[in-house]
Specification:
There is one protein chain. Helices cover about 35% and strands about 25% of the residues. By secondary structure, the chain is of the alpha+beta class. The protein has two domains: about 160 residues, no CATH class; about 120 residues, no CATH class. Helix 1 packs across helix 4.
């Protein structure tokens, strides 16, 4: 699980930039917007997933906190906005990102001014054929391919395969159940265990989740604050019991450590979140909840942490 806030912000910019070179692509206005479940089926089987509900973040004011991120000052992005009027803060409603190995797939929904985009693309040098466009990626031997897949939805892929975006028109089995969360991530358990980019305090939890078959973590936002909710599906009830015990144990370790150094959990940093965890089990499924106070959430989204 390698995406951080800065990375997915860069992914949004890439969506905009890639669509900008899409002169000549066919826009399928007759196709309705697929549901989130249907969009998830378009991702490759077994892909790890990150989803962002920008429409809800916009309504709750959370998206405005991201305005201070450095990516919004990117010269290419600024030029694109000036040329087309497209701005993710106003025009993107959701982004579904899936990655399998070194390949990345993105399904973005929102409002696109295709006339302005096509005029801008004439100066960008993109190549299109049979409704699919492609351009060189930021790394050698990697290509960015993209195409409009329905009215209000754009697909994109970053891969050594220059036609990889075509895979987003297929359907594949998906074991993930999307939580009703403004931001959530999910994938097979072993990939959580291999997460080296996570903050140090969370790695023990990630290692424990590596024993689960499928894991989803969602950020649920309310008026007073937010809550992170876990759903981990295990192979058996005994495996789920072991996972629940591990999660309780890790939480206990953090609480004991703070007691030993005579500190109290701070709701404005990770100590307050990690020590707030509560867990339960039903059959082979383990659920968990962590309280997230609004000040911490604002610091996280604004890049202060």
């Amino acid at each position: 699980m390698r995406f951080r806030w800065q990375n997915w912000m860069a992914a949004l910019v890439m969506v905009a930039a890639c669509v900008a070179v899409g002169g000549g692509v066919v826009w399928y206005r007759s196709r309705s917007l697929p549901s989130l479940a249907e969009r998830m089926e378009r991702l490759p089987a077994g892909a790890n997933v990150l989803y962002l509900d920008l429409a809800t973040m916009r309504r709750t004011g959370l998206l405005a906190l991201l305005s201070g991120q450095n990516v919004t000052e990117d010269a290419d992005y600024t030029a694109f906005v000036a040329s087309t009027g497209f701005d993710y803060r106003a025009d993107l409603d959701s982004v579904l990102i899936g990655w399998a190995g070194a390949d990345v797939y993105i399904l973005a929904t929102g409002r696109f001014d295709w006339k302005a985009i096509q005029e801008h693309s004439a100066r960008s040098g993109g190549k299109c054929w049979n409704g699919v466009c492609r351009m060189p990626g930021s790394m050698p031997q990697r290509m960015v391919s993209f195409a409009p897949l329905s009215n209000g939805m754009v697909g994109m892929a970053v891969s050594m395969d220059e036609w990889a975006v075509v895979k987003l028109q297929n359907k594949a089995p998906n074991r993930l159940t999307a939580p009703d969360a403004v931001v959530w991530a999910g994938g097979v358990g072993r990939n959580w265990r291999e997460s080296e980019s996570l903050p140090a305090g969370t790695r023990l939890f990630a290692k424990a989740l590596g024993e689960a078959e499928v894991v989803t973590l969602g950020l649920h936002v309310g008026v007073a604050g937010a809550e992170v909710r876990l759903r981990a599906e295990c192979l058996s009830e005994s495996a789920a019991g072991g996972l629940e015990s591990q999660l309780r144990g890790v939480t206990g370790v953090f609480r004991k450590y703070l007691e030993n150094v005579q500190q109290k959990p701070n709701p404005e940093d990770l100590s307050g979140i990690l020590t707030s965890g509560t867990f339960s089990r039903e059959g082979a499924v383990v659920t968990g909840r962590w309280s997230v106070q609004r000040p911490f959430l604002e610091k996280l989204l604004s890049g202060q942490l």
